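Exercise 3.2. Students should predict the tertiary structure of the chain below and write it as structure tokens, then compare their answer with the key that follows.

Predict this chain's 3D structure.
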Amino acid sequence: MGSKVPAVRHTDSLYAQLGGKTSVATIVDRLYEKMLADADIRPLLSKANLAALKQQQAQFLTYALGGPGDPKNRVTTPAHAHLLQQPRHTERAKNPSCARS
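Answer key:
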């Protein structure tokens, strides 16, 4: 049998409803798997510290979904706007599900 899903209360944050820290980590891992599988996006990440990038993304999502976080660390500008210089990069980043190998 599968693991039991905890009951969700109406007052729970989206972060809690999605499963908290473990689920956010899974979401971030899957996002970067898709980004790295995309031939247009992969080169943009080639020199990145992926562990740090994933940690920052998880912190951002945690805060954005109503989980614990420090509002002073909010991202207020696109951190990687300088990388997405071509329209195809922006489109690929928005929709990595159609990744090409």
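Discussion points: The CA atoms of residues 27 and 41 lie 18 Å apart. The chain has four helices and no strands.
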